[in-house]
Amino acid sequence: MALDPQARALLDQIIAMGGLPLEQMSVADARSTLAAAVAMQQGRPEAVARVENRTIPGAQGDMPVRIYHPGGTGALPALVYFHGGGWVLGSIDSVDAICRSLASHAGCVVISVDYRLAPEHKFPAAAEDSYAATRWVAANAAALGVDPTRLAIGGDSAGGNLTAVVALMARDRGGPALRLQLLIYPVTDSVFDTPSYRDNATDYLLTKSAMQWFWDLYTRDAADRINPYAAPLRASSLHGLPPALVITAEYDPLRDEGEAYAARLRAAGVPTELSRYHGMIHGFFGMFGVIDEAKRAAEQASGALRAAFK
Fold first, then answer.
1. Under 8 Å CB-to-CB from 310, ≥6 apart: which residues?
2. Beta-carbon neighbour count of residue 16 at 10 Å?
3. Could you list the active site residues?
4. What is the pTM of this model?
5. Are 235 and 45 in contact (CB under 8 A)?
6. Closest residue by Cα to residue 245 from 304, 157, 307, 161
7. Alpha-carbon torsion 287, 290, 294, 298, what sign?
8. Nearest to residue 100, comparing CAs of 145, 131, 70, 142?
9. How do residues 102-124 score in pLDDT, each as one tens digit?
10. Per residue in 119-156, pLDDT tens?
């Protein structure tokens, strides 16, 4: 399918603005550039009953989270959400629109995690923080108004990577039990030679060079890049993992590794739904203000969460 016209218009706007590629910026400049772009693309924030910023224990020190409550009474299901940004960029602010949408439409409490970023904190800091947050939610469910038997995890891009990794950690370390892993164009491997990398290397927002830059900043050495807690496609077994919804985008370097992970989950007997959004680019899921397909994908994700929480 041809590139979606709304995605094409966004890319043309970015080209017209000029500026350096991410991998040629300082980390500080790349972070501010992403923050400005997200603010433009998220659209009007969706109302939820209550939003709370607080600090919880991370793997090594306190960690900010933002909690979105959809309203209602009784213990609600919960989604722990991990933002994208190559483990280097992004924050709970960058996924505010996504978390509001999922809380509202899935009828669940969403806990958005501000895990430690690279290069200040290399692998496995982000993964360990994400797992610590998931365990904290399960352990403090009553105080949060959450049903600990109805807990899911999710994230986009690097956050999708952390979702897959937390699912592995929960299996390997004895919990908590998870109803669903929501994997939105996840990073699952550390190689750059798939057909989707070759076909979409330069022209569709996320580039091959940017991904190489992210991996260089996130990992300490070559051994990290083949560690399943960094590259979950390298895990020897995917048996015993929670059901998954995997969303990919046609014009995305990460498309093939996300779809390969879905195939491996299915082969391991894990109930897995895979949806490729044709004509879409990496990052589209949160672009409610500029791409209509973002709303359809968010509704699919919300529907999968509602079904998993029954």
1. none
2. 7
3. 157, 252, 282
4. 0.98
5. no
6. 304
7. positive
8. 70
9. 999 999 999 999 999 999 999 99
10. 999 999 999 999 999 999 999 999 999 999 999 999 99
* CA dist 221 → 40, 122, 123, 162 (Å): 36, 10, 10, 19
Q: For domain 5-308, give its CATH number from 3.40.50.1820, 3.40.50.300, 3.30.2310.20, 2.60.20.10.
A: 3.40.50.1820
160: helix, strand or coil: helix
Hey, what are 241's tokens? 């993992």
Give the domain ranges of the chain.
5-308
302's CB contacts (< 8 A; 6+ apart) are: 101, 102, 105, 106
Strand order in 146-156's β-sheet?
Answer: 50-58, 61-69, 109-113, 76-82, 146-156, 180-184, 244-251, 272-281
Q: Are 115 and 163 in contact (CB under 8 A)?
A: no
Give Cβ neighbours of residue 128 (< 8 Å, ≥ 6 apart): 58, 59, 60
Cα separation, 234 vs 148, whole angstroms: 30
